[in-house]
Specification:
CATH class of the largest domain: Alpha Beta
Radius of gyration: 23 Å
Number of helices: 17
CATH topology of the largest domain: Rossmann fold
Oligomer: single chain
Number of domains: 3
Shape: elongated
Strand order of the largest sheet: 2-3-4-1-5
Order of helices and strands: HEHHEHEHEHEHHHHHHHHHHH
Strand content: 5-15%
Distance between the termini: 60 Å
Bound molecules: zinc ion
CATH superfamily of the largest domain: P-loop containing nucleotide triphosphate hydrolases
Length: 301
C-alpha cells in the first residue's frame, strides 16, 4: 500500500509524503471532509509511513511487518463505540501515550470520526493536544467539523479533503468491484467513493426511491403513497435515503423540487428526535406531493 493506491486528493497525498520525507511532522492533524472519501485510508497510510523504519517501502521493515499484521505496538485507533467516543477511551489513550514507543521512533494515534467524542472527551483530549509527548502524532478524522470544539480545531493542522471526480469514482468501481454504474448514478454519491459503493450495494432500494421521486408529480396521492412503501420499509437506512433524496432534488435544479428540501431536512430532525416513524414519513411524502402538485393541492382529496 502507498498513497498511489488511494483514489483522489492528490494535493493531500503530495503534502503528507513531503512531510514524511522532510521529517516535518506535527503533533496533531485534523483530516476533514465528507463521509466515504478516504480520510481513514489516508490517515492509516500516513501512520504507516510515520512509523516505518526504512527510507523506502521494504519487505524487511519490522515496523511495516507489524503494521500490516495489525500488531504494531506504537499504533492505536480509537473509534466510536455505540456512536460515541467516550471520556474513558480518551483517558486510556492518555495513559498509554506516556509510554515510550517500542518498535518505531514514534507513536501514532488515529481518532476516527472524532466529532463523535462527547464534550467531556473533547475537553479531556485537549490536555494531550496542548502538551503531547515529543514522539506522538495524533490524527483526528471528521466529516462533521462543526461538532468539534474550537479549542480542539485550533490545536490541529487541518487537512481538507475534496470530493472525488465522478470519472475517477467510475474508474475505481470498474477496477475494484467490476461494476460500471452510469455517471448520472455516480453523481448522486457527491464525490464520495464510500457512498457510491453503498448506493451500488443497495441499488434496488435506491431505484425504487428514484421511481417515487420521478413519478410523484405525475400521479395522485394514493399511488404516491403506494410507491413510497420503500421509505416505510427502510427504517434502518432512512437517514442515508433522505440524504439521497436531497441530492436528487437539488440536482434537478427545479424550483418546485428545491422547495421540498426543507421537508426532507425537517423529517431528518423529527426522526432523530424519535418521533413516530410512519407519521414522519407520511409528513414527508404528503408535503412533497403537495409541493410538486401545487396547482391541484387545494382541489383534490
Ligand atoms: Zn517500513
Amino acid at each position: 500500500m502507498s498513497f498511489e493506491n488511494i483514489v483522489g486528493n492528490n494535493k493531500v497525498k503530495a503534502f503528507l509524503e513531503q512531510s514524511v520525507k522532510e521529517n516535518h511532522i506535527l503533533h496533531s492533524y485534523l483530516f476533514s471532509g465528507i463521509e466515504g472519501i478516504g480520510k481513514t485510508l489516508f490517515a492509516r497510510e500516513f501512520a504507516r509511513q510515520l512509523l516505518c523504519l526504512e527510507k523506502e517501502e521494504n519487505e524487511n521493515c519490522l515496523s511495516c511487518q507489524k503494521y500490516y499484521s495489525h500488531n504494531h505496538p506504537d499504533f492505536y485507533e480509537i473509534e466510536p463505540e455505540n456512536n460515541t467516543i467516550k471520556i474513558e477511551q480518551i483517558r486510556q489513550m492518555q495513559e498509554k501515550i506516556l509510554e515510550k514507543p517500542i518498535t518505531s521512533k514514534r507513536k501514532v494515534y488515529l481518532i476516527i470520526d472524532s466529532d463523535t467524542m462527547t464534550k467531556e472527551a473533547q475537553n479531556c483530549l485537549l490536555k494531550t493536544l496542548e502538551e503531547p509527548p515529543e514522539y506522538a502524532t495524533i490524527v483526528l478524522t471528521t466529516s462533521n467539523e462543526s461538532k468539534l470544539l474550537n479549542t480542539i480545531k485550533s490545536r490541529c493542522m487541518k487537512i481538507s479533503f475534496e470530493p472525488i471526480e465522478t470519472l475517477k469514482i467510475q474508474e475505481y468501481l470498474k477496477k475494484q468491484m467490476q461494476i460500471e454504474p452510469s455517471l448520472e448514478w455516480i453523481k448522486r454519491s457527491e464525490g464520495s467513493i464510500g457512498k457510491a459503493i453503498k448506493l451500488q450495494e443497495k441499488k434496488e432500494i435506491y431505484e425504487k426511491v428514484n421511481e417515487l421521486l420521478e413519478n410523484i408529480e405525475k400521479q395522485d396521492k394514493i399511488a404516491t403513497l403506494k410507491q413510497a412503501e420503500v421509505l416505510y420499509e427502510q427504517k434502518e437506512n432512512i437517514q442515508d435515503i433522505l440524504e439521497y433524496i436531497n441530492v436528487f432534488l437539488y440536482n434537478t435544479k427545479e424550483k418546485q423540487k428545491w422547495n421540498c428540501i426543507p421537508y426532507v431536512e425537517q423529517t431528518k430532525k423529527r426522526l432523530l428526535a424519535s418521533s413516530n416513524y410512519d407519521m414522519c414519513i407520511d409528513y414527508l411524502v404528503m408535503n412533497m406531493w403537495e409541493e410538486m402538485n401545487e396547482k391541484y393541492s387545494r382541489s383534490s382529496i
